[in-house]
Design brief:
The complex is a heterodimer of chains A (311) and B (256). By secondary structure, chain A is of the alpha/beta class. Chain A has twelve helices and 13 strands. Helix content of chain A is 35%, strand content 25%. In chain B, helix 9 crosses helix 10. The chains are: A alpha/beta (311), B mainly alpha (256). Chains A and B meet through helix 2 of A and helix 1 and helix 4 of B.
Chain lengths: 311, 256
């Protein structure tokens, strides 16, 4: 539904977005992840025509954004929740949007209710809003025209944990109804629970993309953390099966997938008290893949891209 | 796998009509405290200067033209500010992001701002003519209407609307309120001073000095062909050129 093709945006000698291509499909939530300054916002601004690409293009449903008539009715956009006139009330911000898109005034009330902005809050000027309230207002604006596509830049920024959970549910049900969602974040945990697909970007380039399991599969050989009532017995049993392991904390770190460890334990009737994947989490993968564009120097040395070397 | 379509069905979505854009821009002028107060101040000042002029002037000075000239000052100064703010608020408050994501046709948005400001200016002008007529009648001076015709009102309207459009042009060139207001008010004056100071420029001054070129519009005097020619060239330089440059900038600028 959203198709980004060879998108490049340079500023003088600086390349903010470097030959980026990806697709967002209907019925899916696509997470767009990367550290600050990785090119997420520039990419999203190119999608809606606020920034002109140096090369490449973005189409939504086969059209350039500028060629969609009354685009608010098809594509909901939230690029910067703070970009609202501080002197307008929340209700007025939505009213202007509804007027422009040709929607009845009742739509404003529906959306205020949907994002849980009370009538009293809707009457206040936006400059007195918390960041979380501005995000809710921005999400309400994006949803005003009942769009089929949502493009949201850092929508969870400033939301409290309950707000983040609410937004997850909202986006999930939007996608379940066949909608296409692209949301960006620099925080993995905001995205990984809701995103069906993830696109990792660092220094303007896509460094990895896919669903959770395929991303993890690329993170290095499987590892398992396991604790048994009799750890030495388990280690010996694993060794007989040709699987190496090391003592780690109260249990073992095994160089195999949890299912292999479980099979061995079941065959030998060894009681396990804990069994989980010990491979690199998405967090490690995220840091590793975007290491070059991190600002913290230790990350660039520690997280050299060596599969299997992740502790 | 999924039945959802990969294209947008836009057949049932008409484009946003221009009239709706104008209505939205008119609303943007009055839905903030700053905008509302500016309108109230313009209305109050218009009324105030008329009443003061009526109260303090000699009865033989209470002519229609003098009343119109009196309202011209507050309106001529403040109506352009209204237009400037309508443009620059989009950048000062970063609402341009939302505005142009909702209406990608930036030129259409800018023209809607022009039409909205001009409509408002016309409304103030009509009110000014009404007040001036009323006070002229009350003034009771026998020759108060002498030589006054529709052309005088039209020239006055041309003067006020030129100022509004000039302000919009400067606003688009600068995209910030302070820069636009300062250059709108100061640049033509400084230019006049420089032209007057340099003797060699005396011959070209009438053609490029907007202050001089516009002064016959409000004086009530007959304008000769050369006056119109001067007005045309000076307006091209001070109104049309900044407007074109400004519009080009708005179309090209990156919005963040």
């Amino acid at each position: 539904m959203i198709r980004v093709e060879g998108l490049t945006r340079t500023y003088g000698s600086y390349t903010a977005v470097d030959d980026v291509s990806f697709e967002c499909r209907p019925g899916k939530v696509t997470g767009f992840l990367g550290p600050n300054g990785a090119g997420k916002s520039t990419t999203m601004r190119c999608m809606v025509g606020l920034t002109t690409p140096t090369r490449g293009r973005v189409t939504i449903g086969g059209r350039l954004y500028a060629d969609i008539p009354n685009p608010g009715r098809h594509v909901g956009v939230l690029l910067d929740a703070t970009a609202q006139h501080g002197g307008r009330t929340g209700r007025e911000v939505l009213t202007l949007g509804a007027m422009t898109m040709g929607l009845p005034a009742s739509r404003v009330e529906e959306l205020l209710a949907l994002v849980s902005l009370s009538p009293a809050e809707a009457k206040r000027r936006v400059k007195n809003y918390s960041l979380g309230m501005k995000q809710r207002l921005g999400i309400a604006y994006a949803l005003l025209g009942d769009p089929q596509v949502l493009i949201l830049d850092e929508p969870a920024n400033g939301l409290d944990p309950a707000g983040i959970r609410w937004m997850r549910g909202l986006l999930k049900s939007f996608a379940d109804r066949g909608g296409t969602v692209l949301l960006s974040s620099h925080l993995l945990h905001e995205v990984e629970q809701v995103a069906d697909e993830m696109i990792l970007i660092g220094r303007g380039r896509i460094v990895a993309q896919g669903d959770r399991s395929s991303l993890l599969a690329g993170a290095g050989p499987a590892q398992t953390l396991v604790t048994a009532l009799d750890n030495p017995a388990l280690a010996a049993a694993l060794a007989e099966a040709g699987i190496t392991s090391d003592v780690a904390g109260e249990g073992l770190r095994v160089n195999a997938a949890p299912v292999e460890v479980g099979k061995v334990a079941a065959q030998r009737q060894i009681v396990l008290t804990d069994l989980r994947s010990g491979g690199a989490g998405l967090e490690d993968l995220f840091l590793q893949l975007t290491a070059e564009s991190q600002r913290e120097p230790q990350d660039t040395t520690e997280a050299a891209p060596q599969p299997g070397a992740i502790a | 796998m999924t039945a959802a379509p990969l294209t947008l069905d836009v057949a049932g979505t008409p484009a946003i009509p221009f009239s709706r854009m104008v209505a939205v821009e008119l609303r943007k002028m009055v839905d903030t405290r700053a905008g509302r107060w500016l309108l109230i101040v313009i209305a109050a000042l218009t009324l105030l200067v008329e009443i003061i002029f009526f109260a303090t002037s000699h009865p033989s000075d209470r002519t229609f033209v003098n009343f119109m000239t009196a309202t011209g000052t507050p309106q001529g100064l403040l109506l352009p500010v209204l237009g400037i703010m309508l443009v620059t608020q989009e950048w000062g408050q970063s609402t341009a992001l939302t505005t142009f994501a909702t209406i990608p046709d930036r030129a259409a948005v800018m023209w809607a701002k022009v039409v909205a400001t001009v409509l408002l200016a016309i409304a103030f002008l009509v009110a000014a003519v009404a007040i001036a007529s009323l006070l002229t009648a009350l003034g009771g001076y026998a020759q108060a209407w002498q030589g006054v015709g529709a052309d005088d009102v039209a020239k006055f309207a041309l003067l006020q609307l030129s100022g509004v459009v000039q302000g919009l042009g400067f606003a688009m060139v600068w995209l910030n309120t302070a820069g636009a207001i300062v250059t709108y008010f100061v640049a033509p004056q400084v230019f006049t001073v420089i032209l007057t100071a340099i003797h060699g420029l005396a011959r070209v001054q009438p053609w490029i000095d907007i202050n001089n070129a516009q002064s016959p519009l409000s004086s009530g005097d007959h304008m000769a062909g050369s006056d119109w020619a001067h007005l045309l060239t000076a307006s091209l330089l001070w109104i049309v050129l900044p407007f074109v440059v400004g519009l080009w900038r708005v179309l090209k600028v990156e919005l963040k």
